[in-house]
Specification:
Blueprint: E1 5-9, H1 15-27, H2 40-49, E2 53-59, E3 67-75, E4 84-91, H3 100-115, E5 119-126, H4 130-138, E6 142-153, E7 157-167
Parallel strand pairs: 4-5
Antiparallel strand pairs: 1-2, 2-3, 3-4, 5-7, 6-7
Helix pairs in contact: 1-2
The protein binds coenzyme A.
Length: about 180
């Protein structure tokens, strides 16, 4: 990515463009479990209201240019599982293949560490989403489980999904 961009917290003013990007992405029915017919209110609740934090990646030094990506960060489980976080990332189709998801994932790991999370888990990485699987592996995530036919792909039917996991701190920190 040669042109400047900024990753920052999502504001109310960002939401209409974030929704447009998410709507187009989820309508594909090939990467996220959100139903393709999900309403704006449902997706807003899941992407903007429920997470610990929601971010946007925008063109320009001040982050005021075109919306190119968004991600969310939240605890993966309540209570005794809340030291493991979960993230979801979307990059605009025209901006893919330029390192933006890599940048958002690295950013999310820094944010997660700063918030005190010890590990990051992706719960449903669709096995046919090869770009995503390759990317997360390259960034240090392991496939720790394969969920047989756990995703109902809109074109391919039932396909496997992966649980992917990365420890964010020194392994010794995880010892009791
Ligand atoms: C999956 C997704 C997030 C990847 O986003 P992306 O911005 O294209 O990812 P990156 O550019 O960081 O990495 C993708 C590829 O570009 C390459 N790349 C990284 N930096 C690059 C650069 N500066 N120039 C050219 N290519 C680059 C990466 O090496 C990677 O190559 P690979 O596919 O051979 O592994 C994006 O395709 C997307 O939003 N898909 C729809 C939603 C989705 O699937 N989300 C993830 C669910 S688990």
């Amino acid at each position: 990515m040669t042109s400047p961009y900024l990753i920052r917290l999502c504001t109310e003013a960002d939401w209409p463009e974030v929704w447009t990007l998410l709507h187009a992405t989820f309508q594909g029915g090939d990467t996220y479990a959100f139903a393709p017919e999900s309403t704006e209110a449902e997706i807003r609740a899941a992407w903007l209201d429920a997470p610990r934090a929601t971010y946007v990646l925008r063109e320009g030094d001040a982050g005021q240019g075109r919306l190119l990506g968004t991600y969310v960060l939240k605890p993966n489980q309540p209570g005794l599982g809340s030291h493991v976080c979960n993230c979801g990332y979307v990059v605009a189709p025209e901006a893919q293949g330029q390192g933006l998801a890599s940048a958002m994932c690295e950013h999310s790991q820094r944010e997660a560490r700063a918030m005190g999370f010890l590990a990051m888990q992706f719960n449903l990485v669709v096995s046919t989403n090869e770009r995503a699987v390759r990317l997360w592996r390259r960034l240090g995530f392991d496939i720790v489980a394969t969920l047989p036919q756990a995703f109902r792909h809109q074109r391919l039917g039932l396909v496997d999904a992966f649980v992917m996991f990365k420890t964010l701190v020194d392994k010794d920190t995880l010892d009791p």
